[in-house]
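Figure 3 (text version): structure tokens given as input.
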């Protein structure tokens, strides 16, 4: 049954900020067993719960792809937008109602290929949106084509001799575009995702979260769990996340350090 705008408004008006909701929506995720997106989902849910953010004040804006399905599985308001447009739509949501906590969610195809022209603009405008890039380095939903973050030599059905292109580094792009909060995270570490999200949500400007994850169905050669678990490691103990130039230099040298890479002070 369709709920009219008036009825919906009356229902929303009755929700108190203290109301606690289940962290997952009634729609069960359609992701494959073993998919890293479950870990990201858990990390986001933990952050919302631990910060006690009322779910009716959260909007999850997603693009198209397996990652794009996320907005159906979160017990928040949600917008499943068109491919690549999660950032402009989430900008609109935040500007329309700055009191909302806004998550933009999408895959590496969504955010680095068709939607790649939006990251610089949300970063330079420093819109207070939390953008979580689910980076499995492959187009999952369309059954495994190389994405802009796939490595050279990546063999798929459409690149049987191996991809010949150089990958984009989303962390480096976000830093170069002037994002004021940049974290790199691992889907196998939901607690690490939660900790960074809590800091990023508190951050008053644009927060970018580059999450390394695995596509267990279509990628048997690159970002497998074995590979990721072998390579990911924490940032060095003496790492200074307030130094922009050093953050860029670090990311150029180290592809697998995880944590908050940059946080602009006094922003
Ligand atoms: C305008 C448009 N072009 C192409 C597609 C086909 N398409 C759907 S999802 C997708 C890529 C998904 O890959 P990614 O964003 O990395 O997300 P994943 O499925 O891996 O989570 C593509 C090319 C589309 N839906 N709309």
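Below: residues designed for each position.
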């Amino acid at each position: 049954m369709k709920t009219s705008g008036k009825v919906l408004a009356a229902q929303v008006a009755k929700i108190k900020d203290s109301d606690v909701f289940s962290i997952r929506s009634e729609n069960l995720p359609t992701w494959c067993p073993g998919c890293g997106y479950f870990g990201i989902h858990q990390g986001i849910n933990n952050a919302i719960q631990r910060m006690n953010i009322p779910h009716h004040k959260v909007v999850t804006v997603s693009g198209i792809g397996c990652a794009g399905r996320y907005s159906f599985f979160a017990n928040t308001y949600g917008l499943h937008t068109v491919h690549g447009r999660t950032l402009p739509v989430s900008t609109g949501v935040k500007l329309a109602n700055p009191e909302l906590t806004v998550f933009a969610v999408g895959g590496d195809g969504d955010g680095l290929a068709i939607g790649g022209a939006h990251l610089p603009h949300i970063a330079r405008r420093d819109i207070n949106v939390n953008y979580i890039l689910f980076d499995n380095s492959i187009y999952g939903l369309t059954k495994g084509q190389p994405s802009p973050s796939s490595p050279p030599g990546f063999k798929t059905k459409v690149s049987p001799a191996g991809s010949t292109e150089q990958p984009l580094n989303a962390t480096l792009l976000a830093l170069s575009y002037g994002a004021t909060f940049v974290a790199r995270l691992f889907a196998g570490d939901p607690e690490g995702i939660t900790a960074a999200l809590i800091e990023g949500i508190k951050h008053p400007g644009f927060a970018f979260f580059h999450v390394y994850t695995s596509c267990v169905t279509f990628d048997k050669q690159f970002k497998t769990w074995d590979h990721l678990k072998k390579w990911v490691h924490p940032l060095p103990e003496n790492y200074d996340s307030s130094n922009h130039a050093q953050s860029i230099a670090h990311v150029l040298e180290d592809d697998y350090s995880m944590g908050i890479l940059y946080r602009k002070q006094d922003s």
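The two ends are 46 Å apart (CA to CA).
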